[in-house]
Amino acid sequence: MKNETMGKMFLKELEAEAPASRKCLERIPMELSDWKPHEKSMAMGYLALLVAEIPKWITYTIEKGEIDFATYERYIPKTTSELINHFDKCLTGAKNALHNVSDEILSKMFYLKNQGQVLFSSPVGETIGSTLNHWVHHRGQLTVYMRLNGIPVPSIYGPSADEKSF
Question: pTM of this prediction?
Answer without folding.
Answer: 0.93
